[in-house]
Amino acid sequence: MSIKRTTRQGFFAAAAAAAIALTACGGGGNGGGDTTTEAGGGGTSTTEAGGDSTTEAGGGEELSGTVSVLGSWSGAEQDSFMAMVAPWEEETGVTVEYTGSRDLPAQITSGIAAGTLPDLAGIPGPGAMKDWADQGALKPLDFIDPSYAENTPDGFAELGEVDGQLMGVFTKAAVKGLIYFNTDVWDAETPATWDDLVSAADTLASETGATPWCVGIESGAASGWPATDWIEDIVLRQAGPDAYDQWVAGELAWSSPEIKGAFETFGEVLDNTYGGVDVIVNTGFGRAANPLFAEGEESCLLHHQASFITDFFQNEAGATPEQYDFFPFPDMNPDYAGGVVGAGDLFGMFNDTPEARSLINYLLTADAQRIWVERGGFLSANSGVALDSYQDEVNRRSAEILQNAEVFRFDGSDNMPAAVSDAFNKAMVDFAQNQDNLDSILETLDAAVADTAANS
């Protein structure tokens, strides 16, 4: 999935509060005595009479200069990230140099080869994180307070570990498998089952002229990932959590009936998608839901995406929060009811500098995280962030789903080895273009798993 980086709830009370309140490091002093406060790792921020200011990180290093950050956000999301780091910049005097890229894996891989890496960057998932940690590119985050694990959903902290060492922290959560609709159009009851959903959508489509689904899977070099989310949701609900775990671990073949069946179910969705193949493969994921807010034959009824997509509804489609709502992905097999697929954005450190340590600590504080929460399009992975911090009901309900999930599984493609995840993305584009090639597509994915295992 695409990466957005954000913040997390306060991980250690006194130090986190001090990290946010690094006094007077952004400008001149106003005379009057020295002021000293602890910074994120136990360091100090000192403002002296006369206006000189210095900031120290844990271990006594002074903070100054810049910290480089590579992420996948652009547009409104980039604006939200920069708003989030602005207080830290003001208090420390350090400048965040942000670069957005739609192809994080390739850019980081190239950076590793060339020896030119950002200080901090988004990580596509635990699979890529392990690859880069094994190569020695990622630096350990052993300075993060252990209470970080207590503030994230069960299992999230462990997914950021490699051989028991913390290498990545989750700075954002997302609930997958949400089915969005236009509140002015969709008037059916919340479907309890997948069959109920298909029936209701077909009925309404015949009445309105709309197409049941909107799907867009273009995302630069990562094109295909929105469709991988579909497969993950279907596998969990059709075949169950055990099959899901085996598949993600490479122990259940892609060509097995469980996984092939998920592709075939998704194929039925593609057959009922607005615009057909050309629109599906060439429409950016952020614009894919625009027809949800159109009319008649130029519209669709439903859009499947994660909780973060609401930011795109407003900024790409011009929708207001009152115009859209969602229901959770309905059950498929009653034996596996209540399943939820979720994900989170990992944040890692490639250059161990005092500035990088200070910023990543700040990004894990509640006050930092709340900035993006209140701007919208952001779901906290930290259960300590109050639900009333969310400015709209859609994001608030998404947070509740994450907290109350009966069966939770992390995004499968993000948890696969990078080579397999990349092959999965490509396979979804190939499948959308020609469903008749499903058997050969699945054979190619099985080969990717085998090659990865042989080279590990």
Could you explain the architecture of this structure?
The chain has helices spanning 13-20, 75-92, 104-114, 126-134, 156-159, 194-208, 225-238, 241-248, 257-270, 276-282, 310-316, 354-363, 366-375, 393-404, 418-433, 438-455; strands at residues 35-38, 44-47, 53-56, 62-63, 66-71, 95-100, 120-123, 161-162, 165-166, 169-175, 178-182, 211-214, 300-305, 324-328, 339-349, 407-410. It is an alpha/beta fold and 456 residues long. Helices cover 40% and strands 17% of the residues. The model is unreliable at 1-55 (pLDDT under 50). The strands form 4 sheets. Strands 5, 6, 7, 10, 15 and 16 form a 6-stranded mixed beta sheet that branches. The chain has a 4-stranded antiparallel beta sheet with strand order 1-2-3-4. α2 links the parallel β5 and β6 (95-100). α7 (225-238) packs across α8 (241-248) and α7 (225-238) packs across α15 (418-433). The longest helix is centred in the first third of the chain and has 18 residues, at 75-92.
